[in-house]
Automatic annotation (TrEMBL):
It comes from Streptomyces phaeolivaceus. GO terms for molecular function: hydrolase activity. This is Alpha/beta hydrolase. Gene3D superfamilies: alpha/beta hydrolase (3.40.50.1820). Pfam families: Abhydrolase_1 (PF00561). The keyword Phosphoprotein does not apply. Keywords: Hydrolase. InterPro entries: AB_hydrolase_1 (IPR000073), AB_hydrolase_fold (IPR029058), Carboxylesterase_BioH (IPR050228), Epox_hydrolase-like (IPR000639).
């Protein structure tokens, strides 16, 4: 049964308008666009997106959290993603994103925010804490990339031959990107949502950026930290879509077992992109967890 705070967010849907990422900040891996929703002075929550997504996937959840009046919610597009800078030779690896996230928290002046991270963003948040000294009050991980092995055969193929795929005719690239992104959803994405998720990966800058981020997604960056998850030392929630076709739910249970005191919450009917498949259920789980952090 949903708690009272969860019931207030039951109308959260994937039709929510995006959170504007209107602010730009020069970082070590390029300009970062970010945005915020919620009243100043409220408890800060930072949301991290995964790959090949952007802060757009958090729009409904961000408004659901901010709408309680308790939270001020920060979203950002990682370098190489969404509305942030995309450039040839850009370092968009997990190692780079962990450093950028640490820099961004310092810029915002957030000493111990609540952090919610999805997919690749989960690895970014874990690296920032374990390797760069980033401090959080609590951490919620949603279908994160965190444990070996990861990366499907198709993902590895694209990464090994990124320079070849970059040269695909635009129409073929668009079809590939749409199929790839749509496979992250269990029940399927609304066509308008799929268009928004794919759009940043199109055009002269977007197409090479799509393959660049895959080529630089090296499992070594999670191998480096996965034996240290027992050191996290803060409240942790692990949420997982029961129908995740990208990372099996068994990985979620294994991750929760590695983190002392972590709570594991499966989300029925959701694929890997839980924010789109079950936004109300995810928001409810997050509100219950964040509201209980002392």
């Amino acid at each position: 049964m949903l708690c009272a705070a969860s019931r207030r967010t039951a109308s959260v849907t994937s039709n929510s308008p995006p959170i504007p990422v209107r602010y730009a900040l020069g970082m070590s891996s390029g300009d970062v666009r970010w945005g915020v929703v919620g009243e100043p002075g409220r408890e800060p929550v930072v949301l991290l997106h995964g790959t090949p997504f952007s802060s757009y996937v958090w729009r409904g959840v961000a408004r659901g959290l901010a709408g309680t009046g308790r939270y001020r919610v920060f979203v950002w597009d990682m370098p190489g993603y969404g509305a942030s800078e995309k450039a040839a030779g850009q370092d968009v690896s997990l190692a780079a994103q962990g450093r950028v996230f640490t820099e961004l928290l310092a810029h915002w002046g957030l000493d111990e925010p609540l952090v919610v991270a999805h997919d690749f963003g989960g690895a970014v948040s874990l690296r920032a804490r374990l390797l760069h000294g980033a401090r959080y009050r609590a951490l919620a991980l949603v279908d994160p990339v965190a444990l070996a092995p990861w990366g499907s055969p198709s993902f590895r193929l694209l990464g090994r031959h990124a320079e070849v795929f970059e040269q695909l005719p635009p129409a073929l690239h668009r079809a590939l990107a749409r199929e790839y992104v749509s496979s992250a959803s269990g029940p399927g994405l609304h066509p308008a949502v799929l268009d928004r998720l794919v759009e940043p990966w199109l055009g002269e800058d977007g197409q090479p950026a799509f393959y660049r981020q895959i080529a630089q997604a090296d499992q070594a960056h999670t191998d480096e930290i996965q034996e240290r998850y027992g050191e996290i030392g803060i409240p942790v929630l692990v949420c997982w879509g029961e129908a995740d076709g990208w990372i099996p739910i068994a990985k979620g249970r294994e991750l929760a077992d590695r983190i002392p005191g972590a709570r594991f919450v499966p989300i029925a009917g959701a694929g890997h992109l839980v924010q789109e498949d079950a936004p109300a259920e995810l928001t409810g789980a997050l509100l219950e967890f964040l509201g209980g952090v002392a």
